[in-house]
């Protein structure tokens, strides 16, 4: 079972690595433009949203709540809404 859950340690290690990298960024670096109109800060917020969404779904599943099937259209509008205008 340890091998099957090795992803937990790897995810923790990569999260700490990302936190260390982000911790070195100043406002100018966070505002740096990226493809498709995103900024570094926008991409980080985007990742945080989707991570938190999964955490919420897991908590709901633990309580026996059925999660509705994801509609690709919903994913697209959520992603589009997150882009800066």
What distinguishing features does this structure have?
85 residues; mainly alpha; 66% helix; flat
Describe this structure in words.
The chain is mostly helical. The chain has one domain. Helices cover 66% and strands 0% of the residues. The mean pLDDT is 87.
The biggest sheet, with number of strands, parallel, antiparallel or mixed sense and barrel status, is: none
Please compute the radius of gyration using only Cα atoms: 16 Å
Helix percent band: 55-70%
> What is the helix tally?
4
User: Roughly what fraction of the amino acids lie in strands?
Assistant: under 5%
Let me know the average pLDDT.
87
Please identify the oligomeric state: single chain
Structural class: mainly alpha
**What number of domains?**
1
C-alpha geometry:
flat
What is the helix/strand order?
A: HHHH
How far apart lie the N and C ends? 46 Å
The number of E-state strands comes to: 0
Question: What's the short version?
Answer:
The protein has one domain. It contains 4 helices and no strands.
Write the layout of secondary structure elements.
Elements: H1 6-23, H2 27-30, H3 40-62, H4 72-82
